[in-house]
Design a protein that fits this description.
The complex is a heterodimer.
Chain A: H1 6-42, H2 46-54, H3 57-90, H4 96-103, H5 105-108, H6 111-122, H7 129-139, H8 149-159, H9 163-175, H10 178-185, H11 190-219, H12 222-227, H13 237-246, H14 250-287
Helix pairs in contact in A: 1-14, 2-14, 3-8, 3-9, 3-11, 3-13, 6-8, 9-11, 10-11, 11-14, 13-14
Chain B: H1 2-10, H2 17-43, H3 48-55, H4 58-91, H5 97-103, H6 106-109, H7 112-122, H8 130-135, H9 144-169, H10 172-180, H11 185-214, H12 220-223, H13 234-243, H14 247-281
Chain lengths: 288, 282
Amino acid sequence: MEILDKKQLKAKKITKIILIVISLLFVVLMLVLPLVSIIVNSFKQGIEFYFNSLSTEYVVSALGVTVIATLFSVGVNTFFGLVAAWLLTRFDFKGKNVLSTLIDIPFSISPVIAGLAFIMTFGRLGWASGIIDSINEFLGTDIQIVFAIPGVILATIFVTFPFVSRELIPVLNAVGKDEEEAAALMGAKGFTIFRKITFPHIKWALVYGVILCTARALGEFGAVSALSKTRGGTFTLPLEIDALYMSGSADSITAAFAVSSLLVLIAVVVLVARNIFEFRAKNKKAKD
Amino acid sequence: MATVKRRSKQTRVIPGFQLTFGITVAMLSLLVLIPLLSVLVNSFRLSPAEFWKLITAKNVLSAFGTSILCSLIAAFINAVFGVILAWVLVKYDFPGKRIVDGLIELPFALPTAVAGITLSKMFSDTGFPGSFFSGIGINISYTRIGIVAALIFIGIPFTVRAVQPVLEKLDGQYEEAAYILGASRRKTFFKVIFPEILPAILTGFGLSLARGIGEYGSVIYISGNSLKDGTQVVSYVIMQKLERLDYADATAIALVLLIISFVLLFVINLIQLRRSKRISVR
């Protein structure tokens, strides 16, 4: 900009430096330091202690429960995300805005309420406990929801419910529905349209959505905490971290950080994946 | 009427409306709405007087006060830093920019319990920078300042990511026109750019606030959860009631929290709707 004289240019440069410094200070203090702090704390008592605290019976059991809950929630929410995104971006209908707001509910309510909701549905006071009882009686099984693995799975699905659809909807809206309409007019069947036209557009958004959903499912704490009470049985990794940290001895706190470091690794993978995903999206935009 | 009906049918050339509508509504109802309705139904078991008594209990009121106050402060701080960070990421180039941009998302990716124990340790008087702050007489962990710190961590991506895309799309022409017409740079920012990004700032503020009021995992370690110091948050009180099997209390408090969340969600949607209308008018 030629209109700017030297003084203004200098002022502009100073503002730039000040703002960058403020930003970097904030990022280092609030985001980098926590990461460093987890790693430092987890190796406080040496490498051997680190690996020992990762291989206790409790941690291994918690890892198993976490993986099961995550697999279920990623499966369910990926299916839901694809269906809901197709519905909300390919059709116009009454109540569309309401529906899309309702889908986002789990995003903005306290995870503790999610846990409470399932207790109130399937717990002793819940209206569905009778249904579960009669199913059990009929099949001769002993399925429990609350304070058992199914409850943990349901709570995890709940809190990660909108994650995949949220990533897909903006991409599908941006692409528009002309191609699908053309294909449909030419007689292509629904699934063929999805596979040949829609899917290539949303491939990367889907990958990222799944990664994000996985990370959130692995790390869910509040909702699961309300529904899971048995350490070594229904505890997930974040609950095990909580139990270790709250027991208060220096050893167990270090162990809590050691288990945390596993989840940090996954968080870092998510961030890197996001960066790659964004980079690809921007490159594609530039090419178009 | 008939023509309108036919036209709306004609626009649906893409197959699968009924199928996807059915699946979406069924899954949403079963997995989200019906469980939430159970909370609502259970809270109706209480008489209004009982409900009122539970809600206005000293520890409950204090928890709502703490949650709302701390979330407001954190959301405000996040709005300020969110604008600065978004501005720096959009307008400037500097080494490590992509790493900073990626790190913004960390609070979304890091489990809340992990964030909670880490922040608590960092800001306690044996951690860094907690030892520095306690040296100058400010205790952070186990006070309300600690709760605010945790909520800043949890909320920062909301404000940055709300403002960033709007700044990216902002037409440089207005800015240039303002310069040419002789507006100072400060004036340009506050009179030209700020009104444009204000809806985005409000959205980010609202999202950060909504998240903060219900937050559990990242807060409960750093807060210390003391009734005397007023550091119990709403989610903690609900969890406490659940552990004591006081389901009536838990649902009553949860209902109020739900209402607050829905009102916030509604207002955020309203802001976004108005913004998209403004853009489409242009």
